[in-house]
Amino acid sequence: MKRILMRAVLGLIGAAAIAYVGDSAVLFVRMGHNNPGAGPAFGTTTFYYTADLKSHQYEIFEQPQTETCVRAIFPHYAYPPCWYSSRRTIRAVG
């Protein structure tokens, strides 16, 4: 039983490592070649900073902020993926 569980865990870790390496390779190709079909490697998303109020509401600040994101499944080069960043359009401060 332990042997099966250990193989399953190692298989999941291996699959995640292969997915990350493949994602890095696709991003590297997008960065190196400006293929019209491949699309740009980086994008931008817009979000707003908010402050939580005592009445369980929040105040949105006026100026929208932009963030550089990477068009990939996983984060690379210290940039979050665009699919994750575009879903977080309101971010609490403090």
Q: How much strand content do the residues show?
A: 15-25%
Structural class: alpha+beta
How many domains, as an integer? 1
Query: Could you estimate the helical fraction of the residues in percent?
Result: 25-40%
Q: Uncertain runs with pLDDT below 50, 5 residues or more?
A: none
Summarize the biggest pleated sheet.
4 strands, mixed
- Globally, the shape reads flat
Average pLDDT over all residues: 86
- Our measurement of the CA-to-CA distance between the termini, rounded to an integer number of angstroms, reads 47 Å
Number of strands: 4
H/E topology pattern: HEEEHE
What is the tally of helical segments? Answer: 2
CA radius of gyration is 19 Å
Question: Any overview of this molecule?
Answer:
- There is one protein chain.
- With 94 residues, this protein is α+β, with helices and mostly antiparallel strands.
- It has one domain.
- It is built from two helices and four strands; from the N terminus they run αβββαβ.
- β1 and β2 form a beta hairpin.
- The mean pLDDT is 86.
